[in-house]
């Protein structure tokens, strides 16, 4: 559309003006925001841009491979893929407090990112002076205020703040004035595949905040398999684009079940799906019972370690979208 094509041209002009001949590094998260920012900046300054993908091992099934494949192979954008999953998972194993989990992930992310940035700075092409971020307008508003009450911070978002000051870098934030739907329009304008643009938002701390309690490889594995089935059923039912976000949460609770002639004692999986305009408020999605029954049966039959599935019917407020 014309608004976005004008916006794109204007952003490219501004990025070139801000950056000049300097190098830029950009942290890719695999989400739409940082991807759109990276493609836009690459269009403006070519290989003055280097992207860093810190793989924290908390992504969904096959997701890291898709992100790296798309950027490196399809777009030819210089990309460093750092597999830091052991570091992250080892430190999250004994950590059950949601805020501490977020803080740990944020701290490790900065450490790994900084170390990679130093390597890039030493590659003989000059130290990058700019850090690109896919910050959106809603990210800029850190705290949420409910109906005239005091302003309260609900959750710390690890992908905002901290990094640029520490690294003595200037920020490039081309999406700072945009809402999510506008970022998607810009992504389309830039030719990103529709399947990628239309993806549900995914939180920076990844699956760690969908595993109440400590994070282990075993729990991650169960959650990944179950979540892939849930999303597959949602796509098959033609519901994906009607939902803002859908995901599973593996509870640290075991319940008794029966399968065949045997007793089982396995974990509970909660399914969540919400509609929303901007993530600030949300309603639970009214699936029909047939869909929920079918999906629960598939998950319990196909995923070892889960013997009970429940559906979360909480809206936001009072619940948040994520469980942690
Ligand atoms: P909540 O759970 O606060 O989530 O209702 C609102 C939206 O934000 C996403 N979310 C995050 N995104 N880093 C992110 O990039 C985070 O730390 C984070 N925490 C929540 C959540 O998935 C939902 O879309």
TrEMBL record:
Enzyme Commission no = 6.3.5.2
Full protein stretch here: 202 to 525 of 525
**Quaternary structure and interacting proteins, as annotated:** Homodimer.
According to the UniProt record, what class of enzyme is this?
ligase
Q: Which UniProt keywords apply?
A: ATP-binding, Glutamine amidotransferase, GMP biosynthesis, Ligase, Nucleotide-binding, Purine biosynthesis
**Pathway given in the UniProt record:** Purine metabolism; GMP biosynthesis; GMP from XMP (L-Gln route): step 1/1
GO CC, sorted alphabetically, is:
cytosol
Task: Give GO terms: molecular function aspect only.
Answer: ATP binding; GMP synthase activity
Q: What is the species of this protein? A: Rhodomicrobium vannielii (strain ATCC 17100 / DSM 162 / LMG 4299 / NCIMB 10020 / ATH 3.1.1)
Q: Which reaction does it catalyse?
A: XMP + L-glutamine + ATP + H2O = GMP + L-glutamate + AMP + diphosphate + 2 H(+)
Residues that bind ATP: 29-35
Q: What name does this protein carry?
A: GMP synthase [glutamine-hydrolyzing]
Q: Which residues form the signal peptide?
A: none
Domain GMPS ATP-PPase, by residue range, is 2-199
What functional role does this protein have? Catalyzes the synthesis of GMP from XMP.
